[in-house]
Amino acid sequence: MTIIFLSILAGAATVTLLFIFAMRKYMITAKKIEASFEQVCANIEKAVRAVPGWGSPIPDWDFHSAVAKTHYFDNLVKKRIFFVCKAEYANRIVDKYHHMGAMMPCAWSVYEKTTGEVYLSKMNMGLMSRMFFGNIIGSTMGKVASEEHIILQELHRLLIEPQMTDPQV
């Protein structure tokens, strides 16, 4: 009987460790963007507004400038956080699950490393939707993931379009 209990305990511990590893690795996505920090920041809100119902309910925040007043960054040159939301989806979740408001609005981070590389990072809403499967939270987060993908496609289009129409390129 002890061996069975220890086997179940070891299995549960393994599953827990795998879950923690997966969450740490995949919960936040970071995508390298082949554009300047300024280009990404100038176009991100246009891309968000291009998808019906989406917007920025809170002004973006120059995180780097705010924090750099008291702390030094070794590997970060610039960082701006954008707050994106679709009120219909937020209401659908928060009206029934009030505590979920702590995750809203979605925060997207645009940052430039000292290497000059620019990234956009955000929560992996597709993975989050799977964590909340079986209720309105999971199904709504799945819709958020699909529409965020469309927003990112629009951002990509906005970033490459000027290059395609610029006669000097």
Quick gist of this model?
With 169 residues, the protein is α+β, with helices and mostly antiparallel strands.
Could you give the topology of this structure?
Elements: H1 2-26, E1 28-33, H2 37-49, E2 54-55, H3 63-68, E3 76-86, H4 87-94, E4 106-113, E5 118-123, H5 125-131, H6 136-165
Antiparallel strand pairs: 1-5, 2-3, 3-4, 4-5
Helix pairs in contact: 2-6, 5-6
Structure explained in plain terms:
This protein is an alpha+beta fold. Helix content is 53%, strand content 20%. It contains 6 helices and 5 strands; from the N terminus they run H-E-H-E-H-E-H-E-E-H-H. It has helices at residues 2-26, 37-49, 63-68, 87-94, 125-131, 136-165, and strands at 28-33, 54-55, 76-86, 106-113, 118-123. Strands 1-5-4-3-2 form a 5-stranded antiparallel beta sheet. The mean pLDDT is 91.
Q: Percent of residues in beta strands?
A: 15-25%
H/E order of the elements? HEHEHEHEEHH
Within the largest sheet, what's the order of strands? Answer: 1-5-4-3-2
Instruction: Determine the number of helices (DSSP H or I, runs of at least 4 residues).
Output: 6
Determine the structural class based on helices, strands and strand pairing. alpha+beta
Distance between the termini: 73 Å
Mean pLDDT: 91
Unreliable stretches: none
What is the percent of helical residues?
40-55%
Bulk shape: globular
* Number of β-strand runs: 5
Biggest beta sheet attributes:
5 strands, antiparallel
Gyration radius over CA = 20 Å
